[in-house]
Amino acid sequence: MKKIVIASLAAGSLLSLVQAADVTTAMLKNAATSTDSVLSFGIGSEGQRYSPLAQVNTKNVAKLVPAWSFSFGGEKQRGQESQPLIYKGKMFVTASYSRIFAIDLKTGAKLWKYEHRLPDGIMPCCDVVNRGAALYGNLVIFGTLDAQLVALDQDTGKIVWKEKVDDYAAGYSMTAAPLIADGVLLTGVSGGEFGVVGRVEARNPLTGELLWTRPTVEGHMGHRYDKDGKEFDNGVTGTVNKSWPGDLWKTGGASTWMGGTYDAKTGLAYFGTGNPAPWNSHLRPGDNLYSSSTVALDVKTGQIKWAYQNTPNDSWDFDGANEFVTFDMDGKRYGGKADRNGFFYVIDANNGKLQNAFPFVKKITWASGIDLKTGRPNFIAANRPGDPTKGEEGKKGTTVFSAPAFLGAKNQMPMAYSQQTGLFYVPANEWGMDIWNEPISYKKGGAFLGAGFTIRPLFDDYIGALRAVDPKTGKIVWEAKNTAPLWGGVMTTAGGLVFYGTPEGFLKALDAKSGKELWKFQTGSGVVAPPVTWQDGDTQYVAVVSGWGGAVPLWGGEVAKKVNFLEQGGSVWVFKLSSK
């Protein structure tokens, strides 16, 4: 057994079996400034994806060359959206179909692999992806497509604990990287298209024991758990039926499928919530709290401290699950969020008060803007899909053209914030959709949409655009257009660089101030994952996972046909500066 250290929490005292060489709460608190490791999704728990490393910079990035590449192998390709973690000479990287690898950093050799045994009945809505893991103690922890959490020994890959989160047959799954916040393991759930109920769970990361749960659909009871696992009520989320009429709140969606961020300065964890279920908004008049929102949670108690709803009574599957990235501006702590609905929000991270909101894409049809006094969108009523009960024979509502499309102005691909430039770097997409509502009723494990759609591009020359956004003014400082939609994340560094990938297979480096392309490398398959960087000895490395997939080829309509030439894959590439 390992040395016991006691960490006291409001939910009870957790016994932490942590040795000196293990990942600690203190290390994770300072992960964003660490240069020899990448300890969490987002590079730091705040999600800025900013590295203080500058050995690779605007003057020499053109000399980046491959150091090694590792293939995930087998026939299990599909989308590879994972962000690697780096610690103690190892890379921990998840892959499609709930796999995880430990790789030797110096040689690229496989140290071990864990392949989760998945049942036949899994129902992931948007590909068999996994976005990453969490490190704590000597464990690496990740979620699976059949809604389980698995904790493995970092050295051997052996299972230390495994916990079922929910019933995959009801549509629950897990695709996000877990979050460690002040010594607590926080996770969300996927499955909003199947009428699940979104929630955040807190666990002891060393044992998997539940501490508390917080539903993200108004009307559901939260719970806390004692050291023996006994359940106690912890207050209802919101007020029953206040913003959800009838019984639809019981299958209300709002899944927390992208995971969360945590800011030690505010002591709050921030989770985005997905679309309300079903998509047909005429069945659920009201705001439908807390769907399509950002929810700020007290890590110790599981109580909601504040919430901001980006799209009340969402009718377009705009979701609100995108990451909330905290940063300093004018002496205050704010959070930035590039929402799927096309607006970029700047919100006080302490109290949820809206500071600013502005478009980061060129065409938005569902609202004319965001009222900065009330925080509510100015809806354009004619651009909400029609009520099918008032349509022809009650089978289909009026079709409208909506922009952005439901895949969003920005989807799962995380943006980055540079402490050097004060800009956010947002991977945006310009597309729209024809959308209509249809009658629907809930059936366990069945798709719960009540809508039909066809996605199509808005412009002939591009769909994706990496945009540098000023959170203070709302100005787009520069943009780099891309023919295919962008679906991979972004990283920025103190070397004045912005790294991002494209579905065409390139990892690119741009000048963070001007947007000028300085370097690119063809990885052999589409990049739909976020890059990372670290330094080993006197050498800085950059890594990214390559493997085309995700929601676009599955749900993309005309856009999917436009990019059907892209090849699948599954590998991780590592780069360093050439010595020549």
From TrEMBL:
Name of the top EC class for this enzyme: oxidoreductase
EC number(s) given by UniProt: 1.1.2.-
UniProt keyword annotation of Oxidoreductase present: yes
Cofactor(s) this protein cannot do without: pyrroloquinoline quinone
Matching CDD domains: PQQ_ADH_I
GO molecular function terms noted in the UniProt entry: oxidoreductase activity
Domain Pyrrolo-quinoline quinone repeat: 41-353, 465-532
Keyword NADP: no
InterPro entries: ADHI (IPR034119), PQQ_b-propeller_rpt (IPR018391), PQQ_MeOH/EtOH_DH (IPR017512), PQQ_rpt_dom (IPR002372), Quinoprotein_ADH-like_sf (IPR011047)
Family: Belongs to the bacterial PQQ dehydrogenase family.
PANTHER family attached to this UniProt entry: QUINOPROTEIN ALCOHOL DEHYDROGENASE (CYTOCHROME C), QUINOPROTEIN ETHANOL DEHYDROGENASE
Record's protein name: PQQ-dependent dehydrogenase, methanol/ethanol family
Organism, as annotated: Duganella levis
Lineage, broadest ranks: Bacteria, Pseudomonadati, Pseudomonadota, Betaproteobacteria, Burkholderiales
